[in-house]
Amino acid sequence: MIDINLIRENPELVKENIKKKFQDKKLPLIKEILKIDEQWRKCKAQGDNLRAQRNKLSIEIAELKKKGKDASKVLEKAQKIPKQLEQLEKKANELENERIEVLKSIPNIISKETPIGKDENENVAIKTIGKPKNIQNPKTHLELAESLKLVDFDASAKVAGSGFYYIKNDLALLNQALIRFAVNHLISKGYEYIEPPLMLNEKSIYASMDKKAIEDSVYDIKGEDLHLIGTSEQAVLAMHSGNIFLESQLPKKYAAYSMCFRKEVGAHGINQKGLWRTHQFNKVEQFIFCMPEDSKKYYEELLKNSEEIMQALNLPYRVIEICSGDLADWKYRSADIEVWRPTTKSYGEVISL
């Protein structure tokens, strides 16, 4: 969420950033936020004045009583202040909550390295590593796995519907080996390994990104304040909710593994048979808490870690810099790593930063 101080001090910068993301319809929100903020500050100032007045009256009452004089009129005036304060604090809290809700709609300031573009068609390939092999009539992963009896999509469709799977024997073991390989790589880099809870309460899961994006992707547990995580990133962020780090404690580097669950309503391929796009999947996440001025350095580190894994697996891939219009509102900068797919003769995303 954008810091209100940035909007107070440099509203034009925030407006220009909104334009870069092609979200001009949000421009009036800046004026709305500043209006709410002005009302909030007025309430806070009135409250501070009332508290100062209360202290002054308390001293005056004490002096009058000390001198044996009648303090009833001053006391009557002082007794009205708590009610006035209560009303002001209630109004200030309402204004603050209203301001927060509007602030959540304002996109984060994007990186200077982020290319300006309207949608995913304007994302930029900044690096291509490895030469794709020319395979004649390649079999799909579905054809290979089913012929070797390593998957059972019919059974999973029967018990859970599309987007789920049973994987078996060597394929299941390969899955675990790849997870372990990625985890070991990050541990060797000094990352602390975590397996987080697979469910979070509403406050925790909505803290990670845009509320609508969460609502469109996560599964709710009926009758409970719990949601299945769409990524371990959500749980790792929530782990330190309310904590204040000393600069000396940073950076904090985590490698987290979890099963992830996403509705991904309308996502391309989600209802197709196979493992490429599913409602349930395994993911290894890398997460760093750091000082803002170190963000670029550690972003580059995360990208380097990801590329090292791809290179160790000897897979042809490319790095895509996400353009401003395709960048999630909460992100400063983002890149996808896409692996070459012989069956489609195209690249497909396997890692996202």
Keywords:
single chain, 353 residues, alpha+beta, Helix Hairpins, BirA Bifunctional Protein, domain 2, 2 domains, 4-stranded antiparallel β-sheet, 3-stranded mixed β-sheet, elongated
Describe this structure in words.
With 353 residues, the chain is α+β, with helices and mostly antiparallel strands. 45% of the residues lie in helices and 15% in strands. The chain is built from eleven helices and nine strands. The strands form three sheets. A four-stranded antiparallel sheet has the order 1-7-8-9, covered by helices on one side. It has a three-stranded mixed sheet with strand order 2-5-6. A hairpin with a 4-residue loop joins strand 8 and strand 9. Helix 3 runs antiparallel to helix 4. The chain is elongated, with a radius of gyration of 27 Å.
